[in-house]
Amino acid sequence: MAAGKHSQAGEEKATSRGQSDANRKLKYISLAVLVVQNASLILSIRYVRTLPGDRFFTTSAVVMAEILKVLTCLLIILLQKKFSVKETASFLLDSIVFQYKDTLKLAVPSLIYTLQNNLQYVAISNLPAATFQVTYQLKILTTALFSVMMLRKSLSRVQWISLLLLFGGVAIVQVQQEGNKEASLSDSSSQNYTVGLVAVVISCMSSGFAGVYFEKILKGSAASVWLRNVQLGLFGMALGMLGMWWNDGAAIAEHGFLFGYTGMVWCVIFNQAFGGLLVAVVVKYADNILKGFATSFSIIVSTVTSIYLFGFHVDLMFTAGAGLVIGAVYMYSLPKAAGGSSSPGVSSSASSVAAAGAERGAEMEAFLPKCEGKEKGS
């Protein structure tokens, strides 16, 4: 009897050790995927926007990414319905059309996300990839401020200090870039640093607001996150097409929707469309500290790669500013001390439509599948 219990205890210990080793491996895989996804999108957009030859229309790329995301989410819903087309169509009709008031809630974040996606292309087209990567971390600051105002979320003292360091680091990078603006943009006279900077700042502000707004919607509804992203995507496609017609309508009518699309451009679009979904899968095995490391590493990867690909110049001021940002991102991701105050109902993770730090937390929850019985909106 005793031998049986000892054997069972040994098996449980071995199983626990095996699970621990598997989780450790999954964390390392998660870290690698997060770093690659964070850095590759920015670098690839920068690369395709600086190549000679025909330029693709960024507005059409935004629309195409939304189309791919919607199709993916529809496929997942169809899978959840066991490939019953009739049941899936009935569910979508009821959730999107009949419950139109619930669907309309997504119009605001969808408008902001569409604007943000277009601004991201504008910013990366006019800023060095490393500068954009560092400056874009201001979205952590804007997301934190909107979380405090809209969700009554409380921040620890370390988080407030990290936000000040983040702002200071970005300011140092901008001072350095302003001093070397001509050198950093000498590869293309068509680039405008001021336009890029304004675009990234507006993108950070809109990203913070949209992420928190979307998180608030998710908390007030039991609707499936896949359904929510279909609703977002439908508005995104409509608004994206409107922006495409307004900005590039005549040129697209002349050259075609897919003008300038190369294999690399398709890689960028697929990265945009499926990057959030991929990150949502791996982030289930990642904690906030790991996400902070991933964001920090992606800044380093972007900077080093920019040196070789784009001839980006790194001096002492940029290194100091980027170092402050990396440290601030890591500090912000640290867990609160025991007994630290935190507002009830504010989760550490949320949707696929926001991004790193607090926003990355919001980005994830929206893609984590809920149970089948809670798919209909309230």
TrEMBL record:
This is UDP-galactose translocator isoform X2. One of its GO terms (molecular function) is pyrimidine nucleotide-sugar transmembrane transporter activity. InterPro entries: EmrE-like, Nuc_sug_transpt. Its main location: Golgi. The chain crosses the membrane at residues 26-45, 57-79, 158-175, 195-214, 226-246, 258-283, 290-310, 316-334. It comes from the Eukaryota. Keywords: Golgi apparatus, Membrane, Sugar transport, Transmembrane, Transmembrane helix, Transport. One of its GO terms (cellular component) is Golgi membrane. The keyword Nucleotide-binding does not apply. It is found in: Golgi apparatus membrane. The keyword tRNA processing does not apply. It is a multi-pass membrane protein. Belongs to the nucleotide-sugar transporter family. SLC35A subfamily. NCBIfam families: nst.
